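TL;DR need structure tokens for one chain.
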Amino acid sequence: MLSFLSRNLVEKLITLFFISVISFSVVMLAPGDPSEIDPMNPKFTKEDIQRIRKAFDLDRPLHVQYYLFYRKLLTNKLLSYKDNQPVLKKIMERFWNSLPLFLVGTLLTWCLAFPLGIQAALRRQSFFDRSTTFFSYLFISLPSFFLAYMLIIFIVKVFHVPVIGLQTFGRESSTWWYLANDRIWHLVLPSVLSAIGGIAILSRYVRSQMLEVIEQDYVRTALAKGLPPDTVYYKHALRNALLPFVTMFGLTLPGLIGGSVIIESIFSWPGMGRLGYDAILARDYPVILSLNFIAACLVLAGTFLSDILYMVVDPRISLMSEPKS
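>> reply
TL;DR here they are.
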């Protein structure tokens, strides 16, 4: 186990190094120069451009820029091109806004998709199966921004309550109890909307995987021998059907950054997705590259978590090295 963890960690660090080199090269070698923020501004002289290039190390060779960039990032000295603020501070502020949205949306998706998919598979061709299939394809087909606008209009017109932003504007001096409930209320609608599409897609995968497993000979044999159906389906069949979802679960971590850009934009939610989107529009390379580096770390952490969960779900998968013949 320890050798597996060590070997896997070294492989992940090597992969992370190559990802950082490729992403840095692609961004920095892209056409245009971030120092030319507003070349049409008559007050923006060539001396200003040279001063900005020197301040942000843009006049150095590319490999030196790479070294200085990651040294500043890891020592929390990296500054944004846009407002000269520490990049890690900006990311951490947005991270605490995105985290509850991501956690609630992910919990709703995984806690509701599995029961719906399993019941649809066990009640194949029933009214429940047809209903879940219809609503799943309906929510998959509807664009998330359209559904969001419809729900916002409905909630505001019917209940006359605000739904935009982190909290109600102008009520910052209210009691902590009101502020806590107000924050939870503003979290409900974007979380539900971010989960609807995931529930629709994931429940279809669960149904398909369960149908494939319950058609296996060992399931029919266990039922023919008189084992309780719940034991056969939920203890033996479900465990074998879980393997593809272990990989999917590990890859949900990068959704913390890029999976909620549309929802955050519609609800004016100051999260990491909007931070990355605004950084791309402003060509704020330190923020873009930092978010890309964090996303790569999350992907590798997710795959590492998946490798661990494989062993838990399926004991046939050994993490130890195979003995030499």
